[in-house]
């Protein structure tokens, strides 16, 4: 145990004092004995007092040492004394716990051995500086390697205890385990980085500001949107980042949101761009608040909204043009269309010229009324050579739109006649037809530059105007031609070169045969129904052969059946009209009645004709049955198809009518706004009137409802298109060759065609399997699917289920089943259902040919058709079709055209 300096002095002085007292007594024995004993007693008393003082000091030091060890051993932080040679002199239990060693183990190692290699250099540097006397201690954060190899983060404070000569006796070190704090700090730093990455990936510019509009946090969107480095504006005031009026408004908006606590969406313009900011408060724990915000560039969205609005207005004008054409004369209609283009492009003047057929002269057909009234008083001729026209006529000369947004500095302008309005900007659009310019529509003097949308708007209106004018002129010409044709004994018609030869036109004098043009154009009856069935195959075969050989004109003799059932012979002179690809598009024919001449010839050839007729009918029986059934099916389904078409067309038409009313109301509101609010320099006493007008027309509702109407209209048109597409897929017009086809697609198309027959009483369940495409005549198989589905629907009297199931049958066939839950087939009838003309349906509901034709089609494909039926429970028809029939699949056109 070490002693304090005072205790050590007393301990060393005690023997000396005793020796001095004894020596004094021995030296003075006998001389002045009393005095000497008095002195000796005093000295002994002094020695006794010293011994008592020493004992008290020693007891006090032992108490201090006990207290020190209590603190040392029970301290919550590590405490150690370290020698100048870096060895441990003493360590407390907390340090042992921190480093994971026992006291004896720890004392056998130097502190530098336990220091993390990355921190050792700095620690040694600080330790050596104390040894050199440059400082009395140091503090730092360092890492130790624990006994288990883990890294222990610590905060260490070391202090040197020096000897009298100034050299270091030992170090006292306080070591605190800060691993949890370092881990928390690391996680906090990671959270901050994660937050920064999060806001950096937010759309637009995200930021957090203090109550005085200083920027605390900003994402990289500032660089993308404003060209501002977000790190450079942290801590700065918003007015420093955005100097000027824009910055002042930002600060004012920030203050308002912080004051009210209400989230706001604010729109601003800066450097020609439109920005939308959402600003909100972020409360703090102390009751104050910061401001958060996200700013998004909505320029493109605003432009798109504006364009959509303009497109809606343009669409309304285009939809209104056909109706206006019926109400106005040609010139008044063209002026109306021109004024619509002028209004939509916000122009001050407008003009419309027709280019004559010679291509070198033009005719002025319309000025807008505002042009004539307010801008142009020049005298002009309505007809003049195009070479004398101004720069606006370059649209016709170059066959492309002319856009001039700086007329004063434009090149090649010819000047303007006296009294003509001064031109600032000009837009002139050519209207093309069959590669030639037929009309020019122009507008001018818009307040701003003309855009591509203006070009598109004028182009659409000009083209639609010309189309309507051309159609009206064609109708007038056709009316005159029709009057001439109807006065002649010959019948003229035009038919499309598609299946069934649908009529486009037939002259009115067809009434001599008991038909009306309206009936025939509607396909009731069709061209093929009017042609005598014995002559139809021959007529079709000859026509197809002439078309294939490129013969432009030919003549045929064949018979027609009148509405009263009489037979007349006609001579048909036909011209084939080709489309742009050189394929037949129309058949134009002139029919002359040659019944009397053929009657004489018929008497001589009757016997021979009858024999040929019988032979021909045997050869063509199957094709005639197929054709008859298809025509009967088409007639039966016509009402259903019309029903499906009428619904979407009806609400599209209704919505467009409503939209027309809305647009007129909007125009009325805008007109009122212009008259009441747009007078510069005048106060506005009409605010209440405007509000009343807005409420009267329910302006807010109109803005919302107009888009819903457009969406409904598009949906209706989509449904029309789907029905027409399914009709096309079902009939497969023009497909006369065998090919690989998807049976599932054929079934789906057929279902859409017959859906009107099924939807009110049958639920259709599809259980499609994984089957390959089948090499077949898909249009004929569609006919089979239709017959089976219609029969299944007829078998269900009220409500039932039709199940369509497809599976693979072996390696070379597919199986298709159509099951219904109808009334079933009586056992005595099941063996006759495939016989021609056999039917159990009431009169007028069936021809008895559907299953017979279906049986023949399946056999032609090398397949089988089977039937299972239970009276009162339902029927299942099963088709087994080879994937790749081995029979000859080269079918003549005449055999597949039906």
Description:
It contains 26 helices and 28 strands. Helices cover 49% and strands 22% of the residues. Mean pLDDT is 79; it is low at 1-13 and 887-898. It is an alpha+beta fold and 898 residues long. The strands form 6 sheets. The protein has a 6-stranded antiparallel beta sheet with strand order 13-12-11-16-15-14. The protein has a 5-stranded antiparallel beta sheet with strand order 2-1-5-4-3, with helices on both faces. Strands 7-6-10-9-8 form a 5-stranded antiparallel beta sheet, sandwiched between helices. The chain has 7 domains: 5-72; 75-177, Beta-Lactamase (2-Layer Sandwich); 184-297, PAS domain (Beta-Lactamase, 2-Layer Sandwich), CATH 3.30.450.20; 307-478, Beta-Lactamase (2-Layer Sandwich), CATH 3.30.450.40; 488-593, 2-Layer Sandwich (Beta-Lactamase); 612-722; 732-896, Histidine kinase-like ATPase, C-terminal domain (Heat Shock Protein 90, 2-Layer Sandwich). The longest helix is centred in the C-terminal third of the chain and has 83 residues, at 595-677.
């Amino acid at each position: 145990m070490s002693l304090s300096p005072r205790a050590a002095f007393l301990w060393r002085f005690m023997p000396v004092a005793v020796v001095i007292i004894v020596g004094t007594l021995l030296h003075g024995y006998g001389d002045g004995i009393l005095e000497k004993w008095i002195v000796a007693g005093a000295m002994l008393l002094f020695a006794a007092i010293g011994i008592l003082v020493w004992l008290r000091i020693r007891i006090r030091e032992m108490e201090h040492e006990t207290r020190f060890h209590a603190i040392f051993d029970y301290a919550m932080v590590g405490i150690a004394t370290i020698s100048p040679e870096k060895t441990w002199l003493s360590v407390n239990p907390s340090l042992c716990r921190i480093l994971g060693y026992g006291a004896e183990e720890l004392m056998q190692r130097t502190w530098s051995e336990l220091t993390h290699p990355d921190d050792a250099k700095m620690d040694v540097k600080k330790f050596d500086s104390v040894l050199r006397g440059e400082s009395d201690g140091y503090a730092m954060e360092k890492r130790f390697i624990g006994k288990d190899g883990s890294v222990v983060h610590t905060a260490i404070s070391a202090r040197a205890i020096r000897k009298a000569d100034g050299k270091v006796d030992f170090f006292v070190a306080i070591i605190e385990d800060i691993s949890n704090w370092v881990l928390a700090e690391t996680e906090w730093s990671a959270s901050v980085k994660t937050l920064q990455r999060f806001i950096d990936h937010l759309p637009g510019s995200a930021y957090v500001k203090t109550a005085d509009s200083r920027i605390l946090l900003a994402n990289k969107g500032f660089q993308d949107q404003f060209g501002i480095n977000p790190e450079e504006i942290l801590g700065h005031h918003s007015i420093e980042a955005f100097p000027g009026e824009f910055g002042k408004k930002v600060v004012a908006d920030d203050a308002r949101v912080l004051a009210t606590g209400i989230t706001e969406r604010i729109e601003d313009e800066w450097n020609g761009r439109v920005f939308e900011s959402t600003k909100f408060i972020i409360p703090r724990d102390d009751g104050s608040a910061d401001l958060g915000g996200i700013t998004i560039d909505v320029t493109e969205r605003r432009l798109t909204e504006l364009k959509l609005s303009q497109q809606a207005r343009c669409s309304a004008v285009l939809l209104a043009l056909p109706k206006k054409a019926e109400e106005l004369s040609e010139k008044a209609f063209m002026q109306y269309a021109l004024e619509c283009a002028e209004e939509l492009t916000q122009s001050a003047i407008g003009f419309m010229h027709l280019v004559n057929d010679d291509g070198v002269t033009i005719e002025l057909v319309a000025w807008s009324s505002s042009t004539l009234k307010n801008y142009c008083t020049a005298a002009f001729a309505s007809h003049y050579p195009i070479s004398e026209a101004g720069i606006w006529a370059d649209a016709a000369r170059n066959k492309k739109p002319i856009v001039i947004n700086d007329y004063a500095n434009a090149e090649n302008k010819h000047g303007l006649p006296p009294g003509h309005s001064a031109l600032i900007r000009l837009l002139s659009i050519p209207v093309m037809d069959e590669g030639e310019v037929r009309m020019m529509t122009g507008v001018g003097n818009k307040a701003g530059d003309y855009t591509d949308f203006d070009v598109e708007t004028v182009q659409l209106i000009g083209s639609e105007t010309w189309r309507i004018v051309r159609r009206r002129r064609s109708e007038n010409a056709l009316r005159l031609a029709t009057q001439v044709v109807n006065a002649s004994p010959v019948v003229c018609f035009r038919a499309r070169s598609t299946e069934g030869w649908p009529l486009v036109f037939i002259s009115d004098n067809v009434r001599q045969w008991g038909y009306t043009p309206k009936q025939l154009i509607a396909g009731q009856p069709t061209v093929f129904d009017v042609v005598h069935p014995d002559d139809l195959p021959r007529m079709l075969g000859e026509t197809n052969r002439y078309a294939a050989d490129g013969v432009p004109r030919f003549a045929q003799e064949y018979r027609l059946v009148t509405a009263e059932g009489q037979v007349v012979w006609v001579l048909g002179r036909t011209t084939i009209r080709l489309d742009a690809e050189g394929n037949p598009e129309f058949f134009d024919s002139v029919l002359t009645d040659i019944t009397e001449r053929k009657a004489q010839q018929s008497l001589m050839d009757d016997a021979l004709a009858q024999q040929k007729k019988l032979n021909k009918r045997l050869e063509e029986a199957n094709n005639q049955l197929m054709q008859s059934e298809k025509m009967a099916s088409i007639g039966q389904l016509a009402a259903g198809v019309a029903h499906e078409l009428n619904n979407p067309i009806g609400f599209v038409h209704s919505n467009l009518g409503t939209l027309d009313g809305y647009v007129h109301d909007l125009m009325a509101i805008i007109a009122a706004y212009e008259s009441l609010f747009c007078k510069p320099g005048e106060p506005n006493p009409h605010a209440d009137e405007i509000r009343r007008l807005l409420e009267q027309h329910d302006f807010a509702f109109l803005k919302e409802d107009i888009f819903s109407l457009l969406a409904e209209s598009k949906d209706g048109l989509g449904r029309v298109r789907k029905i027409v597409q399914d009709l096309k897929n079902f009939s497969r017009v023009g497909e006369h060759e065998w090919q690989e086809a998807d049976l599932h697609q054929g079934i789906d198309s057929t279902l859409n065609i017959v859906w009107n027959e099924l939807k009110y009483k049958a639920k259709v369940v599809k259980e499609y399997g994984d089957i390959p495409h089948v090499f077949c005549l898909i249009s004929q198989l569609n006919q089979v699917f239709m017959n089976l589905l219609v029969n299944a629907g007829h078998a269900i009297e009220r409500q039932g289920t039709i199940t369509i199931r497809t599976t693979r049958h072996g390696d070379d066939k597919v199986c298709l089943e159509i099951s219904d839950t109808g009334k079933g087939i009586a056992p005595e009838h099941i063996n006759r259902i495939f016989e021609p003309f056999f039917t159990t349906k009431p009169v007028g509901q069936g021809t008895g040919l559907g299953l017979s034709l279906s049986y023949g089609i399946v056999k032609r494909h090398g397949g089988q058709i089977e039937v299972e039926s239970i009276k009162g429970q339902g029927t299942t028809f099963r088709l087994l079709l080879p994937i790749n029939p081995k029979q000859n699949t080269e079918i003549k056109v005449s055999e597949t055209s039906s």
